[in-house]
Amino acid sequence: MRLNPSIKLGFLAITLSFTAICATLITSQTTLAAPVPASKAVYHQFQMYSKNAVKSTSSLVHARKYLLNHIDEVGPWQATLMTLQLENLQKIRLADLDQKMYTELFQNVLYEAHTNIGYEQKLTYSSLLKVIKDPTVRKLLQEASDLGFKLETSEGLYYPIINYEVYKKFQPYVKPDIIAYIDIMAAESNQATTSDAAFIITWDELIRRTLEKEAFLNNFPSSNRASAVKNSLFVGYLFYGSDNSPAYDWYTEEEIRTIDPEVKKAYEKAVANRKPNTKSVLLDTVDKILHLLDKSNDELTPEIKEITDHVESLFAND
After folding, report:
1. What global pTM score does this model have?
2. Cβ contact 79:174 at 8 Å
3. Can you tell me whether residue 274 is helix, strand or coil?
4. Cβ 211 vs Cβ 280: under 8 Å
């Protein structure tokens, strides 16, 4: 039986439509599948760079730049792993670079340069390299800059630290615990807690950072970076301050120590701003201390010390 032309055209249209739909589905599946091998390629390339990064400055520089440019091409698991690998590599190189900088030549040259620039000016590699001529010192500074380290000074010494602010570029791609970890570390690398045994941040900020670390340990007890956060949690700062920024004044002739009004005000603010159902041993303790201080006319008592000593032991490193 022969089909008339109109029926033939109908069948042809249906066939072409079906073919087009199939082609679209195949193309879509191919597009969705592409990131899988691409992510493996990115991960493999990063491992190639990081393999030699412990000993090779250029390899670590390449690894760091590569991750910054390609972390958006992998999944959360691979992004997290590579971010932590980069930090580990930077820590290893940091120890080596720190030792090289801890020489009389480097420290003297940096001190002279910093003096010429002016202590009120922000310490940057570009400003230092403009005035420093010594080739050895210049090479170390350039290496530190290329590796992503910041230069800090404290107690008359100059030393490199990891610039965790840069790690915030990784946060959209890593797992929640590492997002929180980067925030904790960036706060410290942007502004250190202490210098010359004195707080250079406010008591409000000190309390905020301390509670942030406690929250991290509560929320992510099994995190790969839980130990690092615990090691950076100085509960004694919260309760007693530092040597040159004490929470209580020094002993008077009557051996009485009274809390600094600024510290007590910061305690009260932290307790007042506590969110409902917030789990925090440290805030619970601060609340107890405030009640006891009200009873003791703001004096440090054996009871307060007993409570704080016990809480400090809970957070002590094993």
Report:
1. 0.85
2. yes
3. coil
4. yes
